[in-house]
């Protein structure tokens, strides 16, 4: 046999041997399995047959029901030995209850809460923002976490960091990753944490427990006391031992609790020992998930939402149909003493007990009741803040108000435990006075910059000697015992602090130190100023200027604005004037002394003039605190000035400063019998007449009655000395001017003898020249008697005629070839030296300068042209009356332009020209041949007819004039 064949036979034998052994072992195992199945069936049959299973399951139900009852009546816990608890008595039954909400703790909740006032429960935050703020803080805190353990740690801790208004102390319902974890998403709380990561928690108020574990532990502990399976061994006819403590598994469904108790049996069967796990299960119809979720939501909102109350709880319950029959009572609020359904007391009088009664489900014949406690917490005062964006000490100012405005504070407080609250105030204007000492401000001469709210406190004075109680004495507080008001004044300018308190019956409180900034309004200030130093500053009249000075008005210190306008008003007149200047001169606009009466002040009596300054600020345009001054307005003011008579005879520039002669001392007008101006003057008669006219011509628009008594000079007496006596009386309706009737008398007081008629040169045109150079001085009029004076310089007569002094030619002439100038005496005074020229050896004398005031004639042998006027053709070349007449033409005055006229031809053919070649054919009133010239109407033949309005007009010439003559149609 070959070697290879031997190896093959060997391997086959081994395989055969293995197969035999496998069949043997498999048979044993199958037999063992069959025995185990038979033993298990036998155990189950015996348990069922003998009612042991029902017995155990009834025990499970009784134990679990008792556990549920106990847990729910102890605040969701079974083991409360180490928990904070409250002892309550409901209808005579005392029990201990743990809290689902504890008072806030900074040590537990960290920087998310501020458990003590005034920051409590969170600084500078309104109540309606707290719930969302809490969630926002959770999110914010996660930003900056960079490791899984930190994030996980925070997410786990937030289970216990429950809210600003308390610590959520309700146990989670299930274990993390336990059999009920799938239902945790229906709840508002996270499940208990995984023990493997519990070491990262800072705070473990519950250990590692959940309600699920509490019930499991309770059932595990209590079930053996009810169901001892060891005693059933003989009854069942079985030989076994059983574990004392079953393994309990509790699962929740939306409608029930399912309990599974797993016992370990060591059963001897057919000589073999088997370990058999046997389950006992029971379903209890309690919707614990929904009930517990209601508790979870209550604890969540109670710890976070200050508005959460009994009505809110009722709403939460009503939206879940499975617990719609759940009724919640609050003790002591719903106590029988308050008209409620409960009779309850507690060891902590101000803690709240919630009683939840579920009538749909009964346990042991009683409605399901849940007792939970809520620890007494501080009331919450809503954040009082309107603000204006200004800061003090790094914090926004709470209330900004203008002075003279009423501050109304309407605090709103809620006690999260639904206890009644009361309000009170302390601080500024309640327990002490505080006002601004303006004299300490730089703006009023002090050293403190009061425009800076950080510095203005240095200028404020606190007075604690008297308690003002202005807030609690206000009508608002008397009516509501909550809201209060105070009307600020100018002295309240600055920054103040008022504490507003809310308090519950237990004495717990919250308060806010409300910062109040009072802005000062611009301050209007009037200084009335008389323009007269001898008249009181608050006295003026309807006819005098008056100054209202507002320069001491102040802009707001705190608003740092700029004064834009000044509004002045008088309700009695009325007038209302707005200016950009800080003073007002009345009348406005300015009027002179003649037109001033009845301008702004028109009524006699006491006037109250008001100034309101207007300022532009960052709060808008503000009207300042008005200032009112009292002005005494009379008819006139008795200003006296002995150095100047009344207007219009004043001797100073400002007529108002002249003497108010026609005003009585009491401000009334003097009557018209009072002389307000008088004087005496001496001089020429004609000049005195002019003086009277000048004195009477002012004021303008006044036509006084005159009593004139004038001497009538005879011929030759005009060069004598006369005296004017002038008086003017008050008008009776003005006090500061002299404008009444006039008395004027002119008398001759001195003869100034003229020299006799002189044998002077007799010209063909001028006649005899009379020499006069003696009379009154040439100053016009003087105010004292004067003597006759004569001429002291050389006269023509002295120079050429050999006569004595005081003679001169009064006239002047140019005749043919003789030229004499005698313009050396004007009104008795010679002003030019005499000249005499003989032109006979030359040609003729001509007017050398027709535009000179004094026509000066010269001798010119070769002159035949202008300005003398006549060319050889007798045409004139200058429109001058003298030249026109000199040339033999006719001068016609212009009817439209006084003092001017036209030179016309002689009417028999001469052309009317203004130059050698230009025919002037439109000169009014001039005729040429049969043509009529009328300015602006063209040239018409004499006899031209026009018809207008049924009247015929015919152009007719007569001499040097023409006109349209109307003739009616036949």
Question: How does this structure look, described?
Answer:
This protein is α+β, with helices and mostly antiparallel strands. 18% of the residues lie in helices and 30% in strands. The protein contains 14 helices and 54 strands. Helix 2 (52-73) packs across helix 6 (211-226). It is rod-shaped and about 195 Å long. The relative contact order is 0.05.
- The percent range for helix content is 10-25%
The number of helical runs is 14
- Describe the global form: rod-shaped
Question: How widely separated are the two ends?
Answer: 190 Å
User: How would you sum up the major sheet?
Assistant: 7 strands, mixed
Q: List segments where confidence is low: pLDDT < 50 over at least 5 consecutive residues.
A: 144-149, 193-207, 755-771, 805-836, 848-857, 861-878, 906-940
What class do helices, strands and sheet pairing give?
A: alpha+beta
Average residue pLDDT: 78
Q: Indicate the proportion of strand residues.
A: 25-35%
Radius of gyration: 64 Å
- Tally of extended strands? 54
Per-chain topology:
Elements: H1 3-49, H2 52-73, E1 85-90, E2 93-102, H3 106-109, H4 130-142, H5 148-157, E3 167-168, H6 211-226, H7 233-236, E4 239-242, E5 247-252, E6 257-269, E7 272-284, H8 288-304, H9 310-318, E8 326-331, E9 344-346, E10 352-363, E11 366-374, E12 380-381, E13 391-392, E14 395-396, E15 399-402, E16 406-409, E17 413-414, E18 422-427, E19 433-436, H10 453-456, E20 460-463, H11 475-480, E21 484-487, E22 494-503, E23 509-519, E24 527-530, E25 539-541, E26 546-549, E27 562-570, E28 575-579, E29 583-586, E30 605-617, E31 620-623, E32 627-634, E33 675-683, H12 685-696, E34 706-710, E35 721-729, E36 742-750, E37 762-763, E38 767-768, E39 774-775, E40 781-782, E41 789-790, H13 796-801, E42 813-815, E43 818-821, E44 835-838, E45 845-847, E46 857-859, H14 881-886, E47 890-893, E48 901-904, E49 927-928, E50 931-933, E51 939-941, E52 945-948, E53 951-958, E54 961-968
Parallel strand pairs: 2-11, 15-23, 25-32, 34-36
Antiparallel strand pairs: 1-2, 1-9, 2-3, 4-6, 5-6, 6-7, 8-10, 10-11, 12-17, 13-14, 16-21, 18-22, 19-20, 22-23, 24-26, 26-29, 27-28, 27-30, 30-31, 30-32, 33-35, 33-40, 35-36, 37-38, 39-41, 42-43, 43-44, 45-46, 47-48, 49-50, 50-51, 52-53, 53-54
Helix pairs in contact: 2-6
């Amino acid at each position: 046999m070959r070697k290879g064949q031997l190896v093959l036979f060997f391997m086959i034998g081994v395989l055969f041997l293995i197969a035999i052994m496998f069949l043997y072992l498999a048979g044993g195992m199958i037999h063992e399995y069959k025995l185990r199945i038979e033993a298990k069936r036998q155990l189950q049959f015996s348990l069922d047959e003998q009612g042991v299973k029902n017995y155990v399951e009834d025990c499970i139900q009784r134990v679990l029901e008792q556990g549920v009852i106990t847990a729910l009546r102890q605040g969701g816990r079974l083991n409360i030995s180490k928990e904070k608890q409250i002892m309550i008595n409901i209808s005579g039954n005392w029990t201990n209850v743990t809290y689902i909400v504890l008072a806030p703790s900074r040590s537990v909740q960290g920087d998310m809460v501020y458990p003590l006032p005034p920051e409590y429960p969170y600084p500078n935050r309104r109540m309606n923002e707290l719930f969302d703020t809490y969630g926002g803080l959770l999110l914010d805190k996660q930003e900056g976490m960079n490791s899984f353990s930190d994030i996980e740690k925070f997410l786990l801790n937030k289970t216990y960091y429950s809210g600003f208004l308390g610590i959520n102390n309700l146990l989670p319902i299930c274990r993390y990753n336990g059999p009920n974890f799938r239902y945790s998403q229906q709840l508002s709380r996270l499940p208990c944490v995984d023990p493997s990561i519990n070491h990262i928690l800072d705070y473990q108020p519950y250990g590692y427990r959940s309600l699920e574990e509490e019930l499991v532990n309770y059932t595990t502990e209590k079930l053996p006391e009810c169901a001892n399976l060891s005693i059933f061994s003989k009854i069942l006819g079985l030989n076994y031992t059983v574990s004392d403590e079953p393994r309990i598994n509790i699962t929740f469904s939306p409608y029930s609790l399912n309990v599974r108790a797993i016992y370990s049996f060591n059963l001897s069967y057919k000589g073999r020992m088997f370990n058999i796990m046997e389950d006992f299960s029971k379903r209890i119809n309690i919707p614990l998930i929904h009930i517990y979720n209601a508790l979870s939501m209550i604890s969540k909102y109670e710890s976070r939402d200050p508005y959460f109350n009994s009505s809110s709880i009722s709403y939460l319950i009503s939206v879940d149909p499975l617990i719609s029959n759940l009724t919640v009572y609050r003790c002591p609020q719903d106590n029988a003493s308050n008209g409620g359904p409960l009779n309850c007391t507690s060891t902590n009088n101000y803690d709240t007990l919630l009683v939840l009664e579920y009538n749909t489900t009964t346990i042991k014949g009683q409605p399901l009741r849940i007792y939970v406690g809520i620890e007494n917490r501080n009331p919450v005062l809503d954040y009082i803040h309107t603000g204006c964006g200004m800061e003090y000490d790094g914090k926004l100012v709470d209330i900004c108000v203008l002075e003279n405005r009423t501050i109304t504070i309407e605090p709103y407080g809620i006690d999260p435990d639904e206890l009644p609250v009361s309000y009170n105030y302390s601080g500024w204007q309640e327990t002490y006075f505080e006002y601004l000492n303006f004299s300490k401000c730089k703006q009023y001469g002090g050293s403190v910059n009061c425009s800076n709210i950080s510095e203005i406190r240095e200028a404020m004075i606190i007075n604690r000697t008297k308690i003002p109680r202005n807030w609690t004495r206000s009508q608002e507080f008397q009516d509501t015992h909550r809201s209060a008001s105070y009307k600020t004044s100018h002295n309240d300018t600055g920054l103040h602090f008022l504490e507003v308190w809310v308090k519950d019956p237990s004495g717990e409180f919250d308060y806010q130190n409300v910062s109040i900034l009072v802005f000062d309004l611009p301050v209007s200030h009037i200084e009335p100023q008389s323009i007269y130093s001898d008249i009181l500053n608050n006295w003026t009249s309807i006819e005098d200027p008056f100054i209202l000075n507002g320069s001491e008005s102040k802009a707001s210190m705190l608003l740092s604005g700029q004064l834009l306008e000044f509004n002045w008003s008088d309700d009695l007149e009325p007038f209302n004037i707005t200016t950009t200047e800080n003073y007002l001169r009345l009348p406005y606009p300015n009027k002179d002394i003649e037109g001033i009466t009845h301008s702004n002040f028109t009524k006699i009596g006491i006037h109250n003039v008001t100034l309101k300054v207007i300022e532009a600020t960052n709060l808008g345009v503000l009207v300042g605190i008005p200032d009112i001054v009292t002005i005494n307005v009379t008819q006139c003011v008795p200003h006296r000035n002995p150095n100047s008579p009344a207007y219009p005879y004043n001797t100073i520039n400002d007529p108002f400063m002249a003497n108010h002669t026609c005003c009585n001392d009491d401000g009334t007008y003097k009557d018209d019998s009072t002389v307000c101006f008088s004087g005496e003057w001496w001089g020429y008669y004609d000049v005195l007449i002019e003086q009277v006219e000048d004195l009477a011509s002012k004021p303008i628009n006044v036509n006084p009655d005159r009593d004139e008594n004038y001497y009538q000079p005879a011929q030759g007496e005009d060069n004598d000395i006369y005296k004017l006596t002038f008086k003017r009386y008050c008008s009776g309706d003005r006090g500061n001017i002299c404008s009444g009737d006039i008395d004027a008398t002119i008398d001759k007081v001195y003869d100034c003898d003229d020299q006799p008629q002189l044998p002077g040169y007799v010209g063909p045109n001028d006649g005899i020249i009379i020499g006069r150079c003696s009379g009154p001085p040439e100053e016009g009029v003087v105010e004292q008697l004067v003597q006759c004076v004569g001429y002291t310089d050389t006269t023509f007569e002295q120079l050429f005629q050999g006569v004595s002094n005081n003679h001169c030619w009064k006239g002047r002439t140019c005749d043919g070839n003789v030229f004499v100038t005698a313009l050396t005496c004007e009104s008795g005074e010679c002003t030019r030296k005499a000249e005499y020229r003989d032109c006979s050896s030359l040609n003729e004398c001509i007017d050398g300068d027709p535009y000179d005031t004094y026509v000066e004639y010269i001798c010119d042998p070769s002159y035949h042209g202008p300005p003398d006027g006549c060319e050889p053709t007798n045409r004139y070349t200058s429109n001058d009356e003298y030249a026109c007449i000199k040339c033999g033409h006719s001068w016609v005055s212009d009817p439209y332009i006084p003092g001017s006229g036209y030179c016309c031809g002689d009417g028999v053919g001469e052309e009317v020209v203004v130059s050698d070649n230009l025919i002037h054919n439109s000169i009014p009133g001039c005729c040429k041949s049969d043509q009529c010239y009328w300015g602006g109407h063209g040239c018409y033949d004499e006899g031209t007819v026009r018809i207008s309005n049924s009247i015929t007009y015919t152009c007719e010439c007569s001499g040097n004039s023409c006109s349209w003559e109307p003739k009616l149609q036949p």
